[in-house]
């Protein structure tokens, strides 16, 4: 790698060995802060490594070769701010789902990570993450509000609002590949139970790449279809837990540890959103 080819967001990943160090590869900071923090397990070309040190000043990650039977997953807090609206409309049989498409600013703050046993998938330990800078990028998103009436009904029925919209967000991301040529890893999501501007719950789905790659726009135009598919996904899953399961509303990439989730609440709310009054 020529130094000139490195953007100012690139980190050199250096393998520490007795005798000499070796430049293994280069990774973008968005990946580094999530998956190459100190203590993280890094998989590269079928070999496993453990991160020894993350040097923010020099933009270097130092790793050691290690055969381990665990992997790591970081947890994050995400802030999302709409920057403009390029389209807006209403959808659903009652035209009560207000939807938007536009540019947003996304900020991720990684605050902790879990060590998970590769075989049993059990959590072995949890660790705080300190001094990891906040990642900030602009991208495209589709978002929509939950009508106040329906929020009221949901809460009167005793469902958890936060868990309900978080579950819907996960189901939408799980089903989006049925509508666009993507994988769920190409999208991120944020569900907000009280937006201070709109004074309503909002679900955001955004392109997980700087600048965006056009997925959100497609989803904006197919939002009703996506909500329908999400309902079918959850309804057809026979799991009995209120947190759902990995087939329906649990996400392998949730930055909030799949908490809270309310499967029955999601079915109740989606049913209200999708059915004509
Ligand atoms: Zn399930
Ligand atoms: Zn989540």
TrEMBL record:
Cross-referenced InterPro entries: MZB (IPR018973)
Domain MrfA-like Zn-binding: 168-249
Signal peptide: none
One Gene Ontology biological process: nucleotide-excision repair
GO CC annotation: nucleus
GO molecular function, one term: 3'-5' DNA helicase activity
UniProt cross-references to PANTHER family, sorted A to Z: ATP-DEPENDENT HELICASE HRQ1
Protein name as annotated: MrfA-like Zn-binding domain-containing protein
Organism taxonomic ancestry: unclassified sequences, metagenomes, ecological metagenomes
